[in-house]
């Protein structure tokens, strides 16, 4: 038998469950599906941004209304919500 693992601290795929409290906004941008891969070429359809073809929570929400591809073919862009104030309040004396 192997060593016992604490299953509450790991996810199903074995990675540590590191949950961030900051809000993240995810955008799916241009389609990167290579339609000519089977013949050794490179051709994309030109779809510029993912648009869900169905309501959130349905299977149709994962298909793009513009090009018909699955959402995973579109470039994922994550914007982390940052609540910190970036203004400088420190002063230097000299």
Q: What's this entry about, in short?
A:
This protein has strands spanning 24-31, 74-80.
Query: What would you call the structural class?
Result: mainly beta
Name the strands of the widest sheet in spatial order.
1-2
- Enumerate the spans where pLDDT stays under 50 for 5 or more consecutive residues: 13-17
* Morphology: globular
How many DSSP helices?
0
What does the average pLDDT come to?
A: 78
Q: Give the radius of gyration.
A: 21 Å
- Sheet-strand content, in percent, reads 15-25%
Count of extended strands: 2
Biggest sheet layout: 2 strands, antiparallel
What are the secondary-structure elements, in order, as H or E? Answer: EE
Our measurement of the CA-to-CA distance between the termini, rounded to an integer number of angstroms, reads 66 Å
Query: Share of helix among residues?
Result: under 10%
Keywords: Cytoplasm, Metal-binding, Zinc, Zinc-finger
GO molecular function: DNA-binding transcription factor activity; transcription cis-regulatory region binding; zinc ion binding
Biased composition (Polar residues): 1-13
Organism: Miscanthus lutarioriparius
List the helices and strands and how they pair.
Blueprint: E1 24-31, E2 74-80
Antiparallel strand pairs: 1-2
